[in-house]
Amino acid sequence: MKRPPREMYNPPLQVTAFVATRRGDAERGPAILINADEARTRGLVDGELVFVIGPRRKELADLRIDDAVPRGGATVRDIAGLTVTEVIKLVKPEQDQGPTATKPMVRFV
Questions:
Q1: pLDDT for residue 1 is more than 90
Q2: Neighbours of 57 (CB within 10 A)
Q3: Bridge pairing between strands 31-34 and 58-65
Q4: What is the pLDDT of residues 21-75, one digit of tens each?
Q5: Which domain does 78 fall in, by range?
Q6: Under a CB-based contact definition with an 8 Å cutoff, are residues 44 and 7 in contact?
Q7: Has residue 108 been placed in a domain?
C-alpha cells in the first residue's frame, strides 16, 4: 500500500489534558499544545493558527509547541466541546484562497 505524501500525513491526536482559564489569567483563549515532533510531522510552527477538529465541532486555535506533551497527545486550552481522551485532528486554514460556497471565509470579530 502506498503512503500519502508527507505534507498530507495528518494522524489523529488524543487529548491528554484540558486547561480552562479564568478571567484575569495572563494567557487566555483557545490554544492547542503539541510535541515538536508532532508539529514537524504536520508542517506546523509555533504560533500558527489551526483548526482543531473534534467529534462535535471545529474550532480555530493558536498552536503552541511544548515538549512536555507526550507524542501522539495534545493539551487543549479553552476549546469547548472537547474532553480528555477524545481524538482530534489539526488542519491548517486555507488562507491563500478566497471563500467558496463550501468553504466560507472565517471572520474575526
A1: no
A2: 11
A3: parallel
A4: 999 999 999 999 999 999 999 999 999 999 999 999 999 999 999 999 999 999 9
A5: 6-87
A6: no
A7: no
Q: Is 32 among the domain residues? A: yes
Contact between 89 and 53 under an 8 Å Cβ cutoff? The reply is yes
All cell numbers assigned to 6 = 508527507
End-to-end CA distance of the chain: 45
Determine contact, residues 12/74, Cβ cutoff 8 Å.
no
Q: What is the pTM of this model?
A: 0.78
CA-derived radius of gyration, the chain: 14
Is there a domain that residue 40 lies in? Answer: yes
For the beta carbon of residue 8, count every other beta carbon within 10 angstroms. 9
